Amino acid sequence: MTSDTVAERPTAKRVRRPHAWLWASLAGIVSAAALLAVAELLATLVARSASPVLAVGSFIVDIVPRPLKELAITLFGEADKIALLAGIGLGAAVASAVAGVLQYRFRPTGAILLGIGGALATAAILTRANAGALSFVPPVVGTVAGIVVLLLLVGRLRRWVAAATADGADANEVGMNRRGFFLMTGIVGAGAIVVGVGARILNATVASVSAARNALSLPAPRTTVTIPEGAMLDVDGLTPLITPNEDFYRVDTALTVPNVDPNTWSLTIDGMVDQQIEISFDQLVGMGLDEYGVTLTCVSNEVGGGLVGNAIWTGVPIRDVLRMAGVQSGADMVLSESVDGYTASTPLSALTDDNLDAIFAVEMNGEPLPFEHGFPVRMVVPGLYGYVSATKWVTKLTVTTFAQDEAYWTPRGYSAEAPIKMSSRVDTPKIGTPVAAGRVPIAGMAWAQPVGVKSVEVMIDSGEWQQATLSTPVNDSTWVQWMLEWDAEPGTHYITVRATDNDGNVQVQEQAPIAPNGSSGWQRTLVTVS
Ligand SMILES: Nc1nc2c(c(=O)[nH]1)N[C@H]1C(S)=C(S)[C@@H](COP(=O)(O)O)O[C@H]1N2
Ligand SMILES: [Mo]
Predict the structure, then answer these.
(1) Which residue, 21, 25, 253, 399, shows the most beta carbons closer than 10 Å to its own?
(2) pLDDT exceeds cutoff 50 at 383
(3) Could you please report the per-residue DSSP string of 243-312?
(4) d(CA 499, CA 1)
(5) Under DSSP, is residue 34 helix (H, G, I), strand (E, B) or coil?
(6) In 3D, which of 270, 245, 387 has the Cα closest to residue 325?
């Protein structure tokens, strides 16, 4: 740095030269804070419980040599984790201050240093056991944000220094540039603290609910669902009888998946009841768990579509809980509400029917409900579309009437009541995937909850209806598989399918759109045989 003194300048006011190194360090630290804040914020959105800061911390814990670890424990005892985090924080602060100075003196080495740090952090995060497919997004986007902030801040600092060291420096101009630098540094720094701390707190609750779910040990169900022999047909391309949780369709209005801790969860039953009650998760589970096989269907499922899935749910009949509150006469609807304010209107009779098994489910296919599917408690009602019955993250039931209350979707173009329409679907062969001439199995799924499917018929082109072979149903509220051996001749053919339920009703041929109460029609698939 040059050392001509400002006092010699012929300006009216004294123009002070900035402590450039100091402010460059600050710029570096604020850039790193922005990096962390953006990363933590994105982590809450895309990578559940994967805090980039903590992932890097855990990575370091794992690579620190044992003697050093033991030394840390001797030195800091139970506070060793805090000491480690403080150490990482200090190290990161020093490194980012260095990056700021480097960027100021030797453009663009500071940005490169920050980039290398971000890349190392990304690598550390991706080596963690709980890393998901999107875990790279928070550190990568965070690093880009950090570099942009560094370039901007150091750019401002340079302008300030240039103004202050120019011949005949103008105090006003210097002041303006100084304020520009501090304003931007202050806004980014404060923003990073608010966003970063907020995201970290959010992230911590996500992680703690995640831990609560992992730690949950539920009593074994008293009764289990028996899968009868012949319940699964062996055809390539046919949907499995039980939908694995990770393949189960998800439909809800939740922007971010609610985090509900089972230890603080409670269910309130109010409205037209003898006494309002509130039960805890332990009380609910303590009523005794049983398994139920129920196929869930979304009203938005088009004929032939995939918004339908079948799971074994473990839970407690809703009627048993309603009985504790005592339903009063005159009620005909139960408005269920989730923690995020979503509501569904379910006919009271569907929840009190002894032959229907509407349940509060706590498990899905033998594990606690996945977060996306309503952890810790959701409703499952055989025979009703999800939007009028299957409230996830449920915390309240209000016993009421259709005349008095309406649910989330009712003013939005969907019916207040919506039984699932019987439907059937071709899974194989698939449209657009030609098959070789010869014996070709045609197979798919059919459902008619809660009555059950009696038969499925298939028509090739405009031929006769042919009876498909059905799998043995698990019960009347689950779907069945069907298949038909077909002697496929070269050319293009139409395959049409329709089901008949145990009451003798044939699947409705007339096409209906999904609104207001579900699609109808027969699926007709075009197949090319070569
Ligand atoms: N809290 C809440 N529960 C909800 C919904 C919702 O938007 N919010 N959507 C419903 C709809 S429309 C359907 S089809 C089912 C889907 O359940 P799934 O996501 O577990 O498959 O959840 C129902 N429960
Ligand atoms: Mo739905």
Answers:
(1) 399
(2) yes
(3) --GGGS----S-SS-----TTT-EEEEEESBSS-EEEEHHHHHHT--EEEEEEEE-TTPPTT-S-EEEEE
(4) 86
(5) helix
(6) 270
Q: Which of 371, 392, 394 has the most ligand 1 atoms within 8 A of CB, as the residue to mutate?
A: 392
CA of 386 to the centre of ligand 1 (A): 6
Distances (CA, A) of 366 to 63, 245, 305, 374: 36, 10, 26, 15
For residue 2, is pLDDT > 50?
no
Using the mean position of ligand 2's atoms as its centre, give its distance from the Cα of residue 99 in Å.
Answer: 51
Residue of minimum CA distance from atom 15 in ligand 1: 386
Q: 207 pLDDT exceeds 60?
A: yes
Rounded-to-integer distance, Cα 233 and Cα 444, Å:
10
Classify 245-412 by CATH class: alpha beta
User: For 135-145, what is each residue's pLDDT tens digit?
Assistant: 899 999 999 99
Q: What are phi and psi of 439, to 5 degrees?
A: -80, 120
Question: Could you tell me the two tokens for 361?
Answer: 């489910």
Calculate the CA 321 to chain-centre distance.
29
Lowest mean pLDDT among 96-100, 173-177, 253-257, 524-528: 253-257
Q: Provide the residue count of the chain.
A: 530
CATH architecture of 423-529: Sandwich (2.60)
Cα–Cα distance between 362 and 287 in angstroms, integer? 12
The residues lining ligand 1, judged by C-beta closer than 6 Å to any ligand atom, are: 248-254, 296, 298, 338, 340, 342, 373, 386-387, 390-393
Nearest CA residue ID for atom 8, ligand 1: 252
Which residue is associated with the tokens 């209350």?
A: 405
Q: DSSP character for 386?
A: G
The H or E element that residue 497 is part of is strand 491-501
Q: What ranges do the domains of the chain cover?
A: 20-207, 245-412, 423-529
Write the CA distances from 133 to 47, 153, 396, integer angstroms. 8, 33, 35
Read off the amino acid at residue 311.
Answer: A
Contact status, residue 322 vs residue 365, Cβ threshold 8 Å:
no
